[in-house]
Amino acid sequence: MILLPGILDVAQQYDLTFHAKSYGKKETLCKCPFCHEDTKKPKKHYLSLNTDDNVYKCWYCKESGGVLDFEAKLSGKPYNAVKEQYFGQAKTTLHPAYKLNPYQLKRIGWQDYKRKSFNGFLQKREEVIKDWKQYVHDELVTHYALFLCIAHLENQDERRQELMTWFIRKCWDSPIPAMYDQIQDEFLKRSEALKSWALEGTELGRSAWRVCLKTMDLDLDALFLNILFLKFLAQIDDKKRHNPKQESVTEKVI
């Protein structure tokens, strides 16, 4: 029988700072390595480690999960790599839906469903992976648009560098593996060789930039909101194109 590592042992391995009086108890408190909001607050320890259930939760940033997810985030390794570290490689080829980690499943709304009904999850695995692929596509489109806008800021070298650093960190926090590398690779390609999400992202970025120029609001927050709003409108148009019957009903109601 393979035992999972203790969450307290993992925390010690990565030198987390513990609340001395709670150490070793069912709820052990320590400084959160994810949001760092308690770093400059000596009496605050926002991260709670449940040593009985082998789970963690930060009461400030709400980051949470099991021990394997915890180790993956602390080590920077992919979740599946940490899982293989304890269980070894699967002898049979797994369906891609089974390889999605809890953080990825949470992003597409399947984490709780898998917990409550694993058999149901198995039956819906095609739907799960379809949702994941759509999520990845949409995220890459949005972030590629944002990347282009940042990369093409003129006469603002210091500001561009600051925003790019923020963008890279945002990509690192994404559940999509190597998202920044994928975006950078597409950016270096010729336009005719771009993937579909990069082409969509290019058009989205241009549209968002034009809106900002018209309103004379070149702030990053405004730019990001424009990108999200235009992406939302594009999704509505796409649904209408794929469901003309629904569109005609809507028009009748209007």
Structural notes for this entry:
The protein is mostly helical and 254 residues long. It folds into 2 domains: 1-89, Zinc finger, CHC2-typedomain (DNA Primase, Chain A); 130-247, no CATH class. It has helices at residues 7-13, 67-75, 79-87, 102-107, 111-116, 118-123, 125-151, 157-172, 179-187, 196-215, 220-242, 244-253, and strands spanning 27-30, 47-50, 55-58, 64-66. It has a 4-stranded antiparallel beta sheet with strand order 1-2-3-4. Strand 2 (47-50) and strand 3 form a beta hairpin. Helix 7 (125-151) packs antiparallel against helix 8, helix 10 packs across helix 11 (220-242) and helix 11 (220-242) packs across helix 12. The chain is globular. Residues 244-254 have low confidence and may be disordered. This is Zinc finger CHC2-type domain-containing protein. InterPro entries: DNA_primase_Znf_CHC2 (IPR036977). It comes from Lentibacillus amyloliquefaciens. One of its GO terms (molecular function) is zinc ion binding.
